[in-house]
Amino acid sequence: MRNHRKIISFDLDGTLVSAQYGDMVWNHGIPEEYAKKYSIGFKEAQEAVIKEYRTLGDGDLLWYDIGYWLKRFGLSVSSDELLKRYEDYIVTAFDAKEVLSRLATRYTLIVASNAARIFVEKELEHTGLTPYFDRIISATSDYKMVKKGEDFYMRLCQEMGAKASDFIHIGDHPIFDYRAPSSIGIEAYLFKSPDPTFSIYHTEEIDEKVISCLGELEVLL
Ligand SMILES: [Mg+2]
Asked: Model-level pTM?
């Protein structure tokens, strides 16, 4: 089925929602539990946990799987409990709601995130953004792909029954949200929040097609 409305796909962390949430769960929540379990200080636990994360690295699918890490560290807290504990850190981009509500009347909106589905769903549900999206895709959980490279975007087009030229993508990663989609013909924009804590990527390399709030995207369409 060909989709005749243009599709706008959004990255999630660092674009619609602050990247702080993931950071808190992975680099504070898990170390805190680790410190309790092994009766060591927080700093020492944090170092140990981060060192363990590095043994896999972000090129391994398991790296994104919180259940795997809780089990590997022998922690009894559940992933749901841990994700709930830090939900106050889920902060939406200030104009996301109003911009998405307007765009949703004219475009098909989707989320294309690298994060595991459990995080994506938690963040969208907590912010109330879920109803604006027709599809929610986690590269790691749904496609078993660790990066949103060219193959990810090709599969996305295929699944949406659309051509690359029917797509617009926006996200905060210079390679996986900007260069990769651009290289297959998707009109891409790099999101660079003026708030330095909103995204974990800080690149100065790309100047063209950079937007600093979602409202700017609306003007460009
Ligand atoms: Mg991102």
From this structure: 0.92
